[in-house]
UniProtKB/TrEMBL annotation:
<feature type="domain" description="Nitroreductase">
    <location>
        <begin position="310"/>
        <end position="480"/>
    </location>
</feature>
<dbReference type="InterPro" id="IPR029479">
    <property type="entry name" value="Nitroreductase"/>
</dbReference>
<dbReference type="GO" id="GO:0016491">
    <property type="term" value="F:oxidoreductase activity"/>
</dbReference>
<dbReference type="InterPro" id="IPR000415">
    <property type="entry name" value="Nitroreductase-like"/>
</dbReference>
<dbReference type="Pfam" id="PF00881">
    <property type="entry name" value="Nitroreductase"/>
</dbReference>
<feature type="domain" description="Nitroreductase">
    <location>
        <begin position="69"/>
        <end position="209"/>
    </location>
</feature>
<dbReference type="InterPro" id="IPR052544">
    <property type="entry name" value="Bacteriocin_Proc_Enz"/>
</dbReference>
<protein>
    <submittedName>
        <fullName>SagB-type dehydrogenase domain-containing protein</fullName>
    </submittedName>
</protein>
Length: 506
């Protein structure tokens, strides 16, 4: 007997959703859409998204010893405590898609009602300096609990750093594809939170990358091309039939999120600012540059961002071998590249770059201030650095023991917090992540091993780096000869390197 289905039953809805329609089939790279159409913009954007923050070949070890899909940007504990929402025009409306990185799909986010893109841009305070209108709004939404359940309060800073890596890499990927991109931190967070249906989800939009297709005024720049693949990244597919939902929070997550009120930018009024060109590296005050160790410019030649993004990975351990000065020179080259961002006007903004050399052929062990302007290392004192120093600095993470050098990204943090408050905290972490992301890409070009390190003893690192009083280390990058056989050890739900007191839970 045939069972009668009422038209409103979930079963019938389910059945409808499972049916295929020939119109739905979209194969990337098959037919090239006409330039300037919504299809062409989506195709270009899909390439930017995957290079910026999507899948790369392979897996990485994450929580509980499980392997998860590797991505183009690093993440503390491979937890990726953020979601990527992509607003694009579909006819008159702006539809917001959730980029589901693991499945390589972009599905419309059920909680975000469609609004015209121009309205979204204007109301959220994302006005751009670009002459052409914004074509896509990529919102990086932190889910702090994902990191804080493991790392405690320090995990909140990791959301800033993880998102800073992704925002920087997205902007670089967009530029490499001939598009214009601007990173926004000073936008109307509450408005955007509601517009995206994020209220009550324990998530917060931390950064937005607006993407613009250059108009005729920018003729002569690289053409906007859909991705061609071939570098091992999985270009996401736009889907319109299945809606995406965000996982709802539980009670511990709610309590944790509530406790972020005094720290999070979401609860602070923001003055909207138009983007300018920003560099994230601060120049050190050096009285006598005659003692400088001049560094060679990278001879490797420019390698396309797409190739580097696909190749980037963290060293899981280092071999007991020295890195060469030339490798270091290539690693540090071009860190001051500019990006359009709306937090550009702060004088002296950005982080200082300090090198602690332990085993680098061509220079004596010790601390060096890096001058990005002169591309030179200025000796800052200190003597031999041993493995015990590295271990003590890096919370006894044994995989980092043989690092030949440590790069310390630093700033006078307390002064910054006094002057800029919570915006200062967020912005300096974006600067640090922007520098670290460029280091990661340079490392892929120079074939030198790097690991971004969040678990470090700040006071020990500052002493080792001979930092002036008041300067604090925000982020640390360990450099060395990567050991391809090394495996991460600390993948329990608890981060032993973070102890319980310093990182305590809110
Ligand atoms: C903010 C941040 C903090 C990190 N802290 C550490 C750390 O303390 N020790 C470590 O070995 N790796 C650290 N990593 C590297 C991650 O473990 C690594 O990115 C992750 O396992 C994914 O692997 P992949 O970078 O090769 O894609 C950190 C990465 C980020 C972005």
């Amino acid at each position: 007997m045939r069972t009668q289905l009422r038209s409103d039953t979930p079963l019938l809805e389910f059945w409808e959703a499972t049916r295929l329609s020939a119109d739905d089939a979209r194969y990337p790279d098959q037919a090239e859409p006409a330039a300037g159409t919504e299809e062409a913009i989506r195709a270009a954007l899909a390439g930017v998204l995957v290079r910026g923050c999507g899948q790369r070949t392979g897996t990485v070890l994450a929580k509980g010893g499980n392997f998860v899909q590797a991505r183009t940007t690093p993440s503390a504990g491979a937890l990726y405590p953020f979601e990527v929402l992509v607003g694009v025009s579909v006819g008159e409306r702006c539809v917001t898609y959730l980029y589901e990185v693991d499945s390589g799909q972009l599905n419309p986010l059920a909680s975000a009602p469609p609004v015209p893109l121009a309205e979204l841009v204007a109301e959220a305070g994302l006005a751009d300096a670009a002459p052409a209108p914004v074509h896509a709004v990529v919102t990086l939404v932190a889910r702090p609990w994902t990191a804080m359940a493991k790392y405690g309060r320090r995990g909140y800073l990791y959301t800033y750093l993880d998102i800073g890596h992704a925002a920087t890499n997205l902007a670089l990927a967009a530029r490499a594809a001939g598009l214009e991109a601007a990173i926004h931190l000073r936008f109307r967070r509450q408005w955007l939170t509601h517009a995206l249906g994020l209220a009550g989800t324990c998530r917060e939009p931390q950064a937005v990358v607006t993407v613009t297709v250059p108009g005729p005024a920018s003729a002569g720049r690289a053409a906007v091309e859909p991705p061609t693949g071939g570098d091992g990244v999985l270009t996401p597919v736009w889907r319109d039939r299945r809606q995406a939902w965000l996982e709802p929070p539980g009670d511990p997550e709610r309590r944790n999120f509530e406790a972020l009120r005094d720290i999070s930018l979401s609860y602070a009024p923001t003055a909207v600012v138009r983007p300018g060109q920003v560099t994230s590296v601060a120049e050190p005050p050096v009285a006598d540059p005659s003692a400088d160790v001049a560094l060679r410019r990278s001879t490797g030649g420019p390698v396309a961002h797409a190739a580097l993004a696909a190749r980037r990975q963290s060293a899981k351990g280092f071999l007991p071998a020295a890195v060469s000065l030339d490798q270091l020179a290539g690693l540090l080259d071009g860190l001051d590249g500019r990006l359009a961002a709306d937090f550009a006007e702060l004088a002296g903004a950005g982080v200082g770059v300090r090198l602690v050399a332990r085993a680098v052929t061509g220079i004596a062990p010790g601390a060096y201030a890096y001058s990005v302007r002169r591309h030179a290392l200025h000796p800052a004192g200190g003597g031999p650095v041993d493995e015990e120093d590295v271990l003590a600095t890096c919370q006894r993470q044994d995989g980092l023991r043989h690092a030949g050098a440590l790069v310390l990204l630093h700033t006078p943090l307390r002064e910054l917090l006094r002057e800029q408050g919570r915006a200062g905290l967020a912005e300096v972490h974006l600067h640090a992540a922007a520098v670290a992301q460029r280091l990661c890409l340079n490392a892929a070009r120079e074939r030198v091993g790097v690991t971004c390190v969040g678990g470090f003893d700040e006071a020990y690192a500052a002493r080792l780096g001979r930092l002036p009083r008041d300067e604090e280390v925000i982020y640390l990058i360990a450099v060395g000869v990567a050991d391809p056989a090394a495996r991460k050890a600390d993948r329990d739900p608890v981060a032993y390197s973070h102890g319980r007191t310093a990182a305590g839970f809110i």
